[in-house]
Model the fold of this input.
Amino acid sequence: MDRDQRSDYRLAEPPANLRLGATCGDDSGMGTVRSHEFWEHQSSLPGLRSVIDPNDRRGWKSAYLDRLHKAALARHLDFQRRDRVLDFGCGIGRIARWVAPRVATVHGIDGYRTMLERARSEIVAARVRNVLVCAYDGERLPFQTAAFDKTTCVWVLQHIVDELELSVVLSELARVSRPGAVLAFIERVSEQREESWMPPETIVRRRAEAYAAAFSSARLSVRAAQPICDDGPIWHNRRIDRLVLGGRLPTRLFAAIAHIDLAVRRRRTVGSWTDHLFVCERS
Ligand SMILES: C[S@@+](CC[C@H](N)C(=O)[O-])C[C@H]1O[C@@H](n2cnc3c(N)ncnc32)[C@H](O)[C@@H]1O
Done:
């Protein structure tokens, strides 16, 4: 496939002053914030382009992947009215806002100030009252031990390039989860560590086994691990792909297509990058 046609999450129109790997020091009390300019730029993009595909100007692909992520989370998280949910790396609050009506409370947390500003304004605009967002300083999560019943984390761990930082984050997620809590992660996995259009300072591709090992080290038992999407949003069906991505189907059908997509998808060898869902239980 032509590399330009691949549907990767990548940087669109990098700002001229992009300085990756920069340390921004104390940014509104958030501590060390790396790649600040990169995420600031992403958060300025309209709609879902800021957190799904910056180059998806027409929006069909982002709308479909949004439904696919939510369908995958709903299948495995069995949200209950009493649930206290953590959305780690909440970005503009896409997942937090969707989870909110299903549960008691959602806490969104993110390492980047401009993403949180977007999240706050979108939460206010959506009149969602049970979502709180706050900043992550890269070290300790500002929550009590065993505070959460469920955690969502979509396309965030792949942006934590440093392995030590990854293990700190996972240990913290385990600490703030009650025993038996369920945590769902969606990450792109690949055999090739640098297989991405994004600058290497901002993203890493890990193998599915590497994520599984990292979860286990943090006392998170992997209950399920499955691919949910590969280099076309609809697995093995290029015709439906074209219908969805070409905007030839109404978006109200996307949720149903996503459910069918997940139901028929089967485990296969990862050849290229693939979105994986990992469902873990806090032991
Ligand atoms: C691709 S976006 C996904 C946002 C959201 N989870 C969603 O699916 O809509 C990645 C998010 O991870 C956040 N992020 C990146 N590195 C992080 C880190 N080390 N700690 C916390 N958040 C981080 C970014 O600010 C951004 O909001």
